[in-house]
UniProtKB/TrEMBL annotation:
A GO cellular component entry from the record: ATP-binding cassette (ABC) transporter complex
Entry-linked NCBIfam families: HEQRo_perm_3TM
Similarity section: Belongs to the binding-protein-dependent transport system permease family.
PROSITE patterns noted in UniProt: ABC_TM1
Protein name (Swiss-Prot/TrEMBL): Amino acid ABC transporter permease
Record-annotated ABC transmembrane type-1 domain positions: 20-209
Transmembrane segments: 20-44, 51-77, 186-209
Any one GO BP annotation for this protein: amino acid transport
Keywords of the record: Amino-acid transport, Cell membrane, Membrane, Transmembrane, Transmembrane helix, Transport
Highest taxon of the lineage: Bacteria
Origin species: Candidatus Lactobacillus pullistercoris
Lineage of producing organism: Bacteria, Bacillati, Bacillota, Bacilli, Lactobacillales
CDD domains reported in the protein's UniProt record: TM_PBP2
Membrane recorded as keyword: yes
InterPro entries: AA_ABC_transptr_permease_3TM (IPR010065), ArtM/GltK/GlnP/TcyL/YhdX-like (IPR043429), MetI-like (IPR000515), MetI-like_sf (IPR035906)
Length: 219
């Protein structure tokens, strides 16, 4: 017990909170950008545009079958070879957006496909353009169906930020490693507290998703 008390000194906790902030920052930016990317690619796949949809689908399949760690390595070590200089934060965000965007594209495509085609046909017959019908009729219903899968993917994204420790992203796990490397007796206390912090972040994300789903149910 004494080890835990010493491990959770204000200095160490404040250092962990700094890492937690980096985790939250990288996660939020990646969630927003990957959702936009996934939405665009998912729509392209759903619309079955000649050649374009097939090419996008091929790229998505490749990315989805690559390890995220490999993509992180490429963005951090490979992009500079192409003249694109990145820091650990930028490289992590790019890697997460690429990987999660591909995952979300499939969720979006399947979510839209789950809506009865008659919904689109009915909206078009009432004078709506394809874009208007998609925005006002199809997409709200599809998003409602996609919320559980989207939540699962976003929670995975938050946890996947820990992989960026390998490129020295100063996130939560990296800060914990620094602390227990100076005193190995702090290893278990550090794992306990970062598990609690990850749980709080993911739980809050789950509550937000549940709130959104209730809003959709009442609309």
């Amino acid at each position: 017990m004494e080890t835990f008390i010493h491990a959770y000194s204000w200095i160490d906790v404040r250092f962990l909170l700094q890492g937690l902030w980096v985790t939250i920052y990288v996660s939020l930016i990646s969630i927003i950008l990957s959702f936009v990317l996934g939405l665009i690619f998912g729509l392209i796949r759903y619309m079955k545009i000649k050649y374009v949809s097939a090419i996008v689908g091929f790229i998505i399949d490749i990315i989805r079958n690559l390890p995220l760690l490999l993509i992180i390595f490429f963005t951090y070590f490979g992009l500079p070879q192409l003249g694109i200089i990145t820091n650990p934060t930028t490289a992590s965000i790019i890697a997460l957006v690429i990987f999660e965007g591909a995952m979300l594209a499939e969720i979006v495509r399947s979510g839209i496909s789950s809506i009865d085609p008659g919904q689109m046909e009915g909206a078009r017959s009432n004078g709506m353009t394809f874009g208007q019908a998609m925005y006002h009729v199809v997409m709200p219903q599809a998003l409602h169906n996609m919320i559980p899968a989207l939540l699962s993917q976003f929670v995975s994204l938050v946890k996947d930020t820990s992989l960026a420790t390998i490129i020295v992203l100063p996130e939560l796990l990296y800060h914990a490693q620094i602390i227990y490397s100076q005193n190995t007796t702090y290893l278990i206390p550090m794992y306990v507290i970062i598990a609690i912090m990850y749980f709080i972040v993911c739980f809050c994300l789950s509550m937000f998703a549940s709130h959104l789903q209730r809003r959709f149910d009442t609309d």
